[in-house]
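Box 3.1 A note on notation
Throughout this textbook, protein chains are presented in two layers. The first layer is the amino acid sequence; the second is a token string describing backbone geometry. Keep the layers aligned when reading.
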Amino acid sequence: QVQLVESGGGFVQAGGSLRLSCVASRNIWTSAMSWYRQAPGKERELVATITSRRITDYADSVKGRFTISGDFLRNTVYLQMNSLKPEDTALYYCHMVIAQLPYWGQGTQVTVSS
């Protein structure tokens, strides 16, 4: 069994910053690590992803503001979020592909006030 443990969510004013982290309970090779988010009434969307080759990709809405990084030796992924906007408010989910299987975190709430 693999569990993803997230931390770093919370409340912040517009323009502020937060840093999310997520670590897997087992040290197994990870091919990709990502962050998704889901706001009320919205579909879950991919925010950022990083592959084992260190290739990164971002949703257009967060480019230039968010940075994803990963420690593949420790199955850990981070999301540095700067210049936060109210529209960034959502439940953020960590996602990892481990041993060819997808795993999801429980979600951590990010709320940005105007």
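The mean pLDDT is 95. DSSP finds no helices and eleven strands in the chain.
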